[in-house]
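Need residues for this backbone.
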């Protein structure tokens, strides 16, 4: 739900790392730079209208995304984003070692670039590549770019790549970047395919191997608790838990333990809407204003174009704007959530690209609830619609949107790693921000209930007693592709579908503060799984578990174990590198220049107070200690270090003689002015 980057969503941990490999501080690049051209360079291709396969000089395969252009110059291939200020360079190198390969790649791409190296990490052996390393470069916040590079080997041939990308483009075109990196395959290599195979039965041996894998990942990443469920052939073959529900307490999680499932709520919301379509109360192509006349999005023309399906498809081009609801939610309601959409205009045409919007998904649920109960408050109408159309019919007796109820029952407490890489309690109060947007990620559920949902999907809309719950055609509508996320990976309506390994895997992950979850199923093989965790590090299961699941079902090559091992090492190295750049006791001279109260029209008030040798930023609804960092451009940043909210960067500055703090996400900047 929180989503640190769309590339993380079941497209492969290493591919996500390629796009998001720089930490928060490394959001920078070379301003106004252009690729040096020579007379030998091939003219750039026109902006492509569709995705197109291509090869490097050495015959390595890649994909040019729609809207991008391609320029070649000997062993150098440069893909340029439609915005014109972001590039991915692919270089066939003759060097035999990583550092030499990176040096050769920079010499080909931009020989004048001089960037300090921030860190180097290793990547797993994957997709025919071995000996992978990723290089991140130090930058300043004002540049607002991410610059990374990598080198990898196939046999005796080496390949290097460089990403020099504006952060707004990086978020907006995360699907295109994922497609480029996942489509980068060695010459003559074909990705493993399980097409045409029959899935193995999940017998005692396979279940033991799968649960052993889960426990290894849990220990490697310091995840306190995990609950797991497996279903095959219409019956639950495993449901249980490992670890503890809360650090310092002995109680173990089980199949009844409740977790905040975050964005796994979205498929449940779209199921409710599907029921209303099945009942002919709605149509997917119905204008939203015909159901909810006061709905607004951007301008009048955009508003008229929005159909029910557009609220669910992540294909409207609406940019992420999560800080607005995460930092100012005390007085937020479902009505204010819908009203806020009226001030947001999509950044691309409908259906052009994938962009993930939590407020728009929340609107889908509230509009559906209003269609069913038009006289009730939006939140209550949604809750009752979900209860009557989803939870009660499926027998999901424990699933709830009531935080107080969930926290009074058998539940997992949220955790994250602290700045030293140790498991700690996550900042929990920020999770209440999802209540006014709960159709997008506010449900609490457990393995037992979620397996009932997955079983219904696998049964094509039938319940265990054989009765028809929903039309199979409606379920299929929710899986139909609306936007491309990555290589053979699409987004439907609240559901993701991957065919990367030759079999269809339907899934959705979830992410809130201290909680990670994923559910998935193989509709053509009658098998599915649910994993719920009580720690941020649980997102390793978004990528590693689906691969392990396929390996066991189809006797695939062993890749997932190595992926976990490398990802755990990378996580520790990245946290250590970030820790070194921060002064946990903030630099005194910088603190002396701070005001005591700041405000931003969208994000509300920010109070600054000292606490011993430390410093606290208080956002009203919750607070975080902050560290300081000196940036290469001479500015100073204050960086949040509360577990689960590490890395939000407030850059000090002056405006009209007053102290300011600037906070950015990928596509927006928020200036807090001193009161």
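Answer:
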């Amino acid at each position: 739900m929180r989503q640190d980057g769309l590339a993380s969503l079941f497209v492969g941990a290493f591919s996500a790392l390629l796009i998001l490999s720089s930490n928060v501080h490394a959001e920078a690049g070379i301003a106004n730079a252009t690729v040096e051209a020579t007379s030998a360079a091939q003219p750039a291709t026109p902006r492509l209208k569709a995705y197109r396969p291509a090869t490097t000089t050495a015959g390595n395969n890649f994909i040019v995304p729609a809207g991008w252009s391609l320029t070649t110059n000997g062993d150098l291939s440069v893909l340029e984003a439609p915005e014109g200020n972001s590039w991915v360079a692919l270089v066939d190198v003759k060097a035999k070692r990583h550092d030499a390969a990176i040096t050769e790649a920079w010499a080909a791409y931009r020989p004048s670039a001089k960037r300090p190296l921030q860190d180097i990490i290793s990547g797993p052996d994957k997709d025919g590549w071995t000996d992978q390393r990723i290089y991140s470069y130090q930058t300043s916040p004002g540049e607002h770019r991410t610059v990374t590079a990598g080198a990898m080997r196939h046999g005796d041939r080496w390949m290097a790549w460089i990403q020099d990308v504006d952060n707004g483009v990086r978020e907006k075109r995360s699907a295109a970047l994922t497609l480029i990196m996942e489509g980068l395959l060695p010459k003559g290599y074909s990705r493993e395919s399980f097409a045409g195979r029959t899935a193995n039965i999940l017998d005692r041996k396979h279940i033991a191997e799968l649960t052993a894998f889960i426990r290894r990942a849990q220990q490697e990443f310091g995840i306190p608790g995990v609950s797991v469920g497996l279903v095959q052939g219409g019956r639950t073959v495993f449901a249980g838990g490992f670890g503890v529900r809360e650090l310092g307490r002995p109680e173990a999680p089980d199949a009844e333990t409740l977790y905040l499932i975050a964005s796994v709520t979205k498929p449940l919301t779209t199921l409710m809407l599907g029921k209303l379509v099945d009942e002919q109360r709605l149509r997917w192509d119905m204008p939203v204003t015909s159901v909810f006349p006061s709905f607004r999005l951007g301008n009048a023309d955009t508003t008229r174009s929005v159909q029910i399906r557009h609220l669910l498809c992540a294909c409207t081009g609406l940019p992420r704007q999560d800080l607005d609801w995460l930092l100012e939610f005390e007085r937020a309601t479902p009505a204010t959530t819908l009203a806020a959409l009226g001030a947001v205009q999509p950044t691309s045409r409908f259906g052009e690209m994938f962009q993930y919007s939590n407020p728009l998904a929340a609107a889908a649920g509230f509009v559906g609830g209003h269609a069913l109960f038009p006289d009730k408050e939006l939140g209550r109408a949604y809750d009752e619609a979900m209860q009557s159309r989803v939870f009660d019919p499926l027998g999901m007796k424990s699933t709830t949107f009531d935080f107080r109820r969930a926290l009074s029952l058998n539940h997992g407490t949220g955790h994250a790693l602290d700045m030293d890489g140790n498991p700690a309690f996550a900042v929990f109060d920020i999770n209440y921000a999802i209540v006014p947007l709960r159709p997008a990620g506010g449900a609490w559920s457990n393995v037992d209930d979620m397996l009932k949902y997955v079983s219904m999907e696998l049964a094509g809309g039938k319940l265990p007693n054989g009765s028809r719950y929903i039309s199979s055609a409606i379920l299929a509508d929710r899986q139909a592709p609306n936007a491309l996320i990555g290589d053979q990976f699409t987004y439907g309506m609240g559901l993701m579908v991957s065919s990367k390994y030759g079999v269809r895997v339907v899934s959705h992950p979830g992410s809130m503060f201290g909680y990670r979850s994923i559910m998935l199923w193989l509709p053509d093989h009658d098998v599915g799984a649910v994993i719920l965790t009580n720690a941020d590090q649980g997102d390793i299961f978004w990528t590693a578990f689906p691969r392990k699941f396929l390996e066991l079902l189809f006797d695939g090559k062993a890749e997932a174990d190595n992926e976990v091992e490398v990802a755990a090492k990378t996580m520790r190295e990245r946290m250590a590198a970030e820790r070194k750049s921060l002064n946990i006791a903030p630099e005194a001279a910088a603190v002396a220049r701070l005001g005591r109260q700041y405000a931003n029209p969208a994000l509300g008030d920010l109070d600054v107070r000292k606490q011993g040798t430390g410093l606290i930023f208080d956002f009203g609804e919750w607070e975080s200690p902050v560290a300081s960092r000196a940036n290469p451009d001479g500015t100073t940043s204050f960086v949040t270090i509360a577990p689960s909210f590490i890395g939000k960067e407030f850059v000090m500055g002056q405006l009209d003689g007053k102290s300011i703090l600037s906070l950015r996400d990928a596509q927006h900047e928020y200036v807090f002015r001193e009161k």
